[in-house]
Amino acid sequence: MNQILINKLEQLILAAKKILVLTHQKPDGDALGSGLAFSEFLDTLGKANTFFALGPISSTADFLPGRTKVKSNFGEINLADFDLIAILDCGDLKQTGIEAELRALPPSTSILNIDHHQTNENFGAINIVNPESSSTAEIVFTLFEELNFPVSKNAATLLLTGLITDTANFSNPATTFASLEAAGKLLSRGAKLNEISTNVLKNKSLDVLKFWGTILSRLTENKELGVVTTIITKEDLELANLDEEALDGVTNFLNNLKGAKMVLVLKALEDGKIKGSFRTTTEGIDVSRLAKTFGGGGHAKAAGFTIPGKLVKIDGGWRIE
Ligand SMILES: [Mn+2]
């Protein structure tokens, strides 16, 4: 990590009176893990801080140390109270769900941007962005090491949760020597691996698995393009009454598919829009670029977009209208 950047970051934090730690809407294990660990770091420095992520927040996160300090209703905070906003695990301000409010802030409010999305827009006064990192948790861990900040047991559990979430339990291409090394060090600092696996991985209900079955039964292959597609209708979601995570789970599971260049999951949203999620494990394919052509973004191996339209059943498949 660049020493000048680290010095700047230290100055920014030391000068701040009240800090908001902010992450993306419907936060996942990396967003909550890296954000709560960063918040604990600020606590240790004696810096007043508040953690905010626009909800809903999955019950999967209940085991995380510090979970109770997460505020998730916008009415609970007043942005004007903060002179520094540390935004973690967000490629752009839109992902926070409070973009307009952030853009309306006076220039005296500084933004610190810590992230690993390929498409990060460098929206901060200081940008600690590394698309090579598996997770924001990995970046935060590296930062703590550079600052000689001793990682507590709780912070170790939080950061390992981020690593395990974003590498899909060290199985997807984001898994590197650096991420495994970080995981090893976090274990040596007391991270509770067993608790993380139980809560993050072994948490599928019967309903979730049945829902996966429906989605998997609809897989279709376009041999010419090397793309395998499936769809999730509004009816599926209503029937199963499931949350986002069940969906992400099935999308990530499709990475296990052999012989396709990439996978595309199309999901009908409430408001007449369709959300597309690309996954690939093929070397040389960057799906974030593909997603960007549809106005979305993400990582080289996992990216998404939202477009207007609805899914209509036709003979032998589905069409977007
Ligand atoms: Mn992440």
Can you describe this structure?
This protein has 321 residues and is an alpha/beta fold. It has eleven helices and 14 strands. It folds into two domains: 3-201, inorganic pyrophosphatase (n-terminal core), CATH 3.90.1640.10; 206-320, Diaminopimelate Epimerase, Chain A, domain 1, CATH 3.10.310.30. Helix content is 36%, strand content 21%. The strands form three sheets. The protein has a six-stranded parallel β-sheet with strand order 3-2-1-4-5-6, with helices on one face. Strands 7-8-9-10-12-11 form a six-stranded mixed β-sheet. The chain has a two-stranded antiparallel ribbon with strand order 13-14. Strand 7 (220-222) and strand 8 form a beta hairpin. Helix 2 runs antiparallel to helix 5. The protein is globular and about 65 Å long. The structure holds manganese (II) ion. Manganese (II) ion binds at residues 30, 89, 116, 135-136, 166.
